[in-house]
Amino acid sequence: xxxxxxxxxxxxxxxxxxxxxxxxxxxxxxxxxxxxxxxxxxxxxxxxxxxxxxxxxxxxxxxxxxxxxxxxxxxxxxxxxxxxxxxxxxxxxxxxxxxxxxxxxxxxxxxxxxxxxxxxxxxxxxxxxxxxxxxxxxxxxxxxxxxxxxxxxxxxxxxxxxxxxxxxxxxxxxxxxxxxxxxxxxxxxxxxxxxxxxxxxxxxxxxx
Length: 208
Known about the structure:
Layout: H1 2-7, E1 10-22, H2 26-34, E2 45-54, E3 71-76, E4 79-84, E5 97-98, E6 120-122, E7 127-129, H3 133-144, H4 149-157, H5 163-189
Antiparallel strand pairs: 1-2, 3-4, 4-6, 5-7, 6-7
Helix pairs in contact: 3-4, 3-5
């Protein structure tokens, strides 16, 4: 970092270790709790305060960070759910499939060995697999807008659903509502009781 700031024409003038408290976001608090560390103070992590002074002009381009993963985000009230981009078309079973006991990942590392299996990631670090994330995304947007999930999925699929498919959608709605209830409890537990409008961010990545 210091090498980069030098190239930007900045000189280090002051470095104060541990001067800044960092309030852990819900996904990190849940990950810590899943690891058995549930009673840490809000600002348990401390950051250094580093002050620079610009001493010379430079014209360096901003570094480009490669983004090899594409995610879409849906917000239902205070709950943010991100689903990995799905290139499939038409109907598929949107059921959530558990990847670990309790569904809450006890790590926030992008180097988690099973990251590639995750298709759904929530704002409090719950992770799931899903065979049809595009259909799941439509279902989530229907719930966010208080629309009929079956109608929204049928519009996406371009046809009427069979009785079995409607049953799969209904079962997925129950799953999602259970996850939303658990997420709201966790957000309230950590003091994050915000209301966020439904939205989609095509290139969003999980916070972890």
